[in-house]
Amino acid sequence: xxxxxIKMPDIGEGxxxxxxxxxxxxxxxxxxxxxxxxxxxxxxxxxDIPSPVHGKVIALGGQPGEVMAVGSVLISIEVEGAGxxxxxxxxxxDKEPVTPKVEAVVVESKPAAAAPRPAPVCQGPMVAxxxxxxxxxxxxxxKHALDLGIQLRLVRGTGPAxxxxxxxxxxxxxxxxxxxxxxxxAAYAQRNDEEQIQVIGMRRKIAQxxxxxxxxxxxxxxxxxxxxxxIEELRAHxxxxxxxxxxxxxxxxxxxxxLVVALRDFPQMNARYDDEAQVITRLGAVHVGVATQSDVxxxxxxxxxxxxxxxxxxxxxxxxxxxxxxxGKASRDELSGSTITLTSLGALGGIVSxxxxxxxxxxxxGVNKIVERPMVVxxxxxxxxxxxxxxxFDHRVVDGMDAALFIQAIRGLLEQPATLxxx
Length: 423
Prior knowledge:
The protein is an alpha+beta fold. It contains seven helices and 19 strands. The strands form five sheets. Strands 9, 12, 15, 16, 17, 18 and 19 form a seven-stranded mixed beta sheet that branches. A four-stranded antiparallel beta sheet has the order 1-8-6-3, with no helix packed on it. It has a four-stranded antiparallel beta sheet with strand order 5-4-2-7, with no helix packed on it. α5 (about 250-265) packs across α6 (about 310-325). It is globular, with a radius of gyration of 25 Å.
């Protein structure tokens, strides 16, 4: 038997160190070739590190959150044969947890996985964990489990790295293992537990990017109420007529089209501001970033050349990019290069929001939820579908009046949807 040492790879672009974001294995695990061992994060991307060999993990070279130099020992694996560890090399040992450095910079993208993760093997819906062990799960899954009265630590996860999925909760319930029938008094039991969550990896990048945006840009927001009754009627008509053959349309492709048309008269909104060089770059191409929530955090895939796309072309591209981002398969190019961003919380959109700019862009358009309200139209009280646009701008570049006129232009296009297609 020998030892195969895997060192932190040179990911390119002159990067000298990267952050170890997450381990997918532990000491004692048997691994196979191409199995993902760890996620590391550069200043721009999350990268999977696959195993080049079959063997058994005997030592880990760092802890999540630790910034490691390129070329340092990442992991040691016991293999058949001689391995690649020379006798003179110092042995690798497990490191104790260390306080992570906080020098990482803002992330812009996450490339496609370097190697596929092995398919999960379901071994039943229930698993025993330690009382203080926090299973991997998205916020949506955690809320779903809370609503169902399920303790996540009792549910076997079949997702990547043992992540608990919605399907695992259903399997757990199907096996009759739910604790939903626990005494009602337990819901009122006094609690004194605490949980500390280390801010590392993608969450650290998001935090730093949001902080950077709010510190550097002079944010201001503008909210406009829009009657979307007509555009919703058009959308329903198009879906009824063409939904089967061309696919269903959401409101987003109409909003993208409205952005494209409005930007013809307000090119200063489709721009990037280099505040160090003091240069504003206005772009003819409209590359719309569509903010998308994923299990690892907020990502912004980019619909390129929206000015050249039809409604269905935009809808198809938005759906493809959103799925890629949520599944962690969006490439670096798909997550960078936007010129203006569209953000929406869908049905959870609330009444008003204050979106944070996606630097170096100077404008972001936020969509709130649609609600039916009584409105006065031509002296008559009627029920209309109403929606707010809550948008933010960089006041260093965009004047308040221009911002208001821009959003009002979008309002006019959406309230009179035929104008979206009149050249």
